[in-house]
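quick one, 184 residues, struct below
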Amino acid sequence: MSVPAFYAELRELRLERLLDASVEIVAESGWDALSMTEVSKRSGVPRQSIYKEVGTKADLGRALVDREVGRFLARASEELAAYADLEQGIAAAVRGVLVLGRANPVLQAILRPGQDAGLLALLTVHPDAVLGQVTQAVTALLGERGDEAMVDTLVRLTVSHVVQPTVPVEDAVDRISRAAAAFG
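---
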C-alpha cells in the first residue's frame, strides 16, 4: 500500500465517521440540532478537522445528502441489474427506492414538519443536488435502453413519491411503471 493511498483511505474513513455521526444527530433531533461540536463528540474527529474536511454545516448537509443519494442509486442499480426486461427492472428499481425512502432516517428527519428548510431545499429546489445527479446516473444505467425524456420523467415521478408519499408503495410503483410503459 502506498502512502498516498493510506491517506486517502484515512480521509474516507474520517468522512464516513462524520456522516454517520451527523445521521445519528439528524435522526434523533433534526437538522437544527446538528452542530460541529456535537458531530465532533460523536465521531471522535476534532472540530477543526471537521471544518477542514467538509467546511460549513451547509457543506456537511450537502455531503450527507450526496451520500444518501448514492445509497438510493446503489439500490436502484442493484434492482435494475437483476432484470433483463426493462419494464420489470424499472418497477423493481422504483420499488427499492421507495421502500428505502420510507425507512431512511435522514430523509424522514428532513421531511419531519418543523425542520430547518435548508436541507429540504437542497433536495427539492437545487436541481443538481438530487435530480441532476440521479438523472445522470440513471441515464448511464439504462444506456441506450432509455431516452432523456423517459429518464427525466421517471426520476421526477420517483423522487416525488419519495419526498411526498401519498399512496402505498405498490400503487406508486404501478403508476410509475405505467408511465414507463407509455414510453415503450
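DSSP finds ten helices and no strands in the chain.
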